[in-house]
Design goal:
The chain is α/β, with parallel strands linked by helices. The protein contains 17 helices and 18 strands. The termini are far apart. The chain binds NADPH dihydro-nicotinamide-adenine-dinucleotide phosphate. NADPH dihydro-nicotinamide-adenine-dinucleotide phosphate binds next to helix 9, helix 10 and helix 13.
Length: about 500
């Protein structure tokens, strides 16, 4: 009797709890395993199809920014090493790669694309531990995009004479490519895939803080049977980058990174006939009209600035909201910010991972302090941050004026500056009030207004009712201090062909 009563009471209590709204949305940890990844204690340089000790004799550590633990040490390429890499690339260019029929080159690039897909999980974990980005982003965004870029450009390799009517497609020679730390393997793909497809050979320098996936890529080129010297990798810091970009036997320099370094490279190459393309910083305007689908726009804004901790050149870091919906929009945005999960990048539930380096964290902190000092109002949700590692709470500023540093300078972190506007003309004027011109976003339910805005906003890409959408077939690049040249799509081939600019 007593048991039966106990059972009934239990059923009743289960039913009533099922009807109660669930207010606790916390997630149990769901950590991706690192067992799939093997990291060597030390890596050499990848030159002429093999890993070698650096002539410099020097190495630097690469660490996990979420734990501050050393993952490995990596060779520093000095002048002799960069020379050797460029010579190997020159020999491979002359000895066969440039004359190989496109249909044969394509086979290597397709093979690389398939091997990237096969090793996608491993590469995603490696990208996350070396750079701090959430595993759900490296797994669901970076790696699929990396493979897609290799597939896309493999498809062009035997069709180059149809890509640009009237242009006889001829490769330039040796491409020296320098990439940043925010999308390490994806930036490699954006640069290496079109260069190889067009018959050029490559020397690549990854960023100092994120060399591991580029080193794994070098292993993939061995497994794919890519002829020695077609792809070479020189690791090191800015000095190594400068040795490569200034090397007299490099025919083409492709750089993605800060505007300051982009300008330095441009001065370095002044007077030379080395071809140059620059993909630099941004301070994108994200414009929300009163007739926008508000809840979708909130998601777009969150994606626009908190994706990859805001370490994104096209991040929507300046938000312009039409005045009559400003307060409503800000309230909703604050509520949404409070649900973002910040922490262990290997946890599959994490939305915002670790800041890439202590230097970058310091830069973000300094600019946020300037925002407070200049009178903007800061909002940060309550957030438990891990004890070790480099972290920054998702942040928004209201009451921002256009002269504030936080609305002018690239913060490259999870920090949003919010301003308002009344008319479309005012939105355009404010959106364009920046030295940059990489990207922009507009949210409205009127198609004509989207076209009107897109015509007037000075940005290489304008997203409408969405943000951060990428496709290998779509060109990407900037105006003004955001650089020049387009990567991606058919246009991306032009960077690596003679007679094309
Ligand atoms: P950098 O521009 O310094 O780094 C980009 C790449 O260039 C890295 O591989 C770097 O090497 C290399 N490099 C540095 N100096 C030289 C040089 N003189 N010649 C040739 N190559 C060089 O960016 P940071 O990492 O210092 O970041 C600073 C700021 O730049 C960020 O806060 C952000 O605002 C912006 N940035 C913008 C990016 C974008 O995609 N638009 C990407 C990265 C940064 P190493 O890293 O080893 O020093």
């Amino acid at each position: 009797m007593e048991t039966e009563l106990g059972h009934e009471a239990e059923v009743e209590s289960r039913e009533s709890s099922a009807l109660k709204p669930r207010l606790d949305w916390s997630y149990a940890p769901s950590r991706e395993s690192t067992d799939i990844v093997t990291v060597e204690e030390r890596y050499g340089l990848f030159i002429d199809g093999e890993f070698r000790d650096p002539k410099s004799g020097e190495y630097f550590p690469t660490i996990d920014p979420a734990t501050e633990e050393k993952l490995s040490e990596v060779a520093v390429a000095g002048p002799d090493d960069v020379d050797a890499a460029v010579s190997a690339a020159r020999a491979a260019f002359e000895d066969g790669w440039s004359q190989m029929p496109g249909v044969e080159r394509a086979k290597y690039i397709f093979r690389i694309a398939r091997m990237i897909q096969e090793r996608a999980r491993e590469l995603a974990v490696l990208e996350t531990v070396d750079g701090g980005k959430p595993i759900k982003e490296s797994r669901d965004f970076d790696l699929p995009q990396v493979a897609a870029n290799f597939f896309y450009y493999a498809g062009w390799a035997d069709k180059l004479e149809f890509a640009f009517p009237g242009l006889r497609p001829e490769p330039l020679g040796v491409a020296g490519q320098v990439i940043p730390w925010n999308f390490p393997l994806l930036m490699l793909a954006w640069k290496v895939a079109p260069a190889l497809a067009t018959g050029n050979t490559v020397v690549l320098k990854p960023a100092e803080t994120t060399p591991l996936t580029a080193l794994a890529f070098a292993e993939i080129t061995i497994e794919a049977g890519l002829p020695p010297g077609v792809f070479n990798l020189v690791t090191g810091a800015g000095d190594t980058g400068a040795l490569l970009t200034g090397h007299p036997d490099v025919d083409k320099v492709a750089f993605t990174g800060s505007t300051a370094v982009g300008k330095a490279i441009r001065s370095q190459l002044a007077g030379s006939d080395t071809r140059l393309s620059l993909e630099l910083g941004g301070k994108a305007a994200h414009v929300i009209f009163e007739d926008a689908p508000i809840d979708q726009a909130i998601e777009g804004v969150v994606n626009g600035i908190f994706f990859n901790q805001g370490h994104v050149c096209c991040a929507g870091s300046r938000l312009f909201v039409q005045e009559n919906i400003h307060d409503l929009f800000v309230d909703k945005l604050k509520a949404r910010l409070s649900t973002l999960r910040v922490g262990d990048p290997l946890d599959k539930n994490t939305d915002v991972g670790a800041i890439n380096s202590p230097q970058q964290l310091q830069k973000i902190q300094e600019l946020v302090e300037s925002g407070i000092a200049e009178g903007a109002e800061i909002f940060q949700p309550a957030c438990d941050l891990p004890e070790r590692g480099f972290w920054f709470v998702p942040t928004l500023f209201t009451g921002v004026s256009q002269s504030h540093r936080i609305s002018q300078e690239e913060i490259f972190g999870p920090v949003l500056s919010i301003m308002s506007f009344r008319t479309p003309e005012e939105a355009v004027e404010k959106a364009n009030n920046t030295p940059y011109g990489l990207s922009a976003g507009v949210w409205t339910s009127k198609g004509s207004r989207i076209l009107w805005m897109a015509d007037r906003m000075k940005a290489g890409v304008v997203w409408a009712n969405t943000y951060n959408k990428f496709d290998p077939a779509s060109p990407f690049g900037g105006y003004k201090e955001s650089g020049f040249g387009r990567e991606g799509g058919r246009h991306g081939l032009l960077n690596y062909l003679k007679g094309a600019h």
